[in-house]
User: Which sequence fits this backbone?
């Protein structure tokens, strides 16, 4: 029983990852570079690579799991630490066509750093729980981003998490 529940959980996670990747595919078919924030073992880049085989995926995570993901070639560049760490924030500045935050930003500073990691016209994909959706949207707009897609189909029906996609305007 435990194996089948885990298998269903893994399949659900892959379905959500593919849904996020497809949402980006409709807006930006061939991004050159992509940063996945809080990537962990880089499961999302591994799944998204199916749709974006020529995209360079990098990841940041506060745990060393991202370094293991780099060794396993699931990400090309691994940043161990929070996105807001000055060394990491400097290294990712204006470097990415797409940045994904598949969980709610830990702070306004993290959201700001994610925006600065984007190249002009880059896309920021943020998962925002329903109660925080408006504040995330307001923060993105105050940072010079235009919402290109919001209220995307629910990622997690119980948590009512919404996917916001914003474009960084130069």
Assistant:
């Amino acid at each position: 029983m435990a194996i089948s529940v885990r298998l269903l959980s893994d399949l659900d996670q892959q379905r959500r990852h593919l849904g996020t990747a497809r949402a980006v595919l409709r807006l930006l078919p061939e991004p050159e570079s992509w940063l996945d924030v809080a990537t962990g073992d880089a499961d999302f880049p591994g799944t998204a690579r199916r749709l974006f085989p020529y995209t360079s995926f990098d990841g940041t995570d506060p745990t060393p799991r991202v370094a293991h993901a780099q060794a396993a070639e699931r990400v090309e560049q691994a940043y161990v630490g929070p996105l807001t760490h000055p060394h990491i924030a400097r290294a990712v500045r204006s470097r990415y066509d797409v940045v994904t935050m598949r969980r709610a930003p830990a702070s306004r500073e993290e959201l700001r750093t994610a925006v600065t990691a984007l190249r002009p016209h880059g896309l920021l994909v943020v998962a925002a729980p329903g109660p925080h959706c408006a504040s995330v949207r307001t923060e993105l707009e105050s940072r010079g981003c235009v919402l290109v897609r919001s209220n995307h189909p629910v990622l997690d029906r119980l948590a009512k998490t919404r996917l916001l996609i914003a474009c960084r305007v130069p």
Remarks:
- Residues 84 and 113 are 6 Å apart (CA to CA).
- The chain has six helices and seven strands.
- Residues 152-158 have pLDDT under 50 and may be disordered.
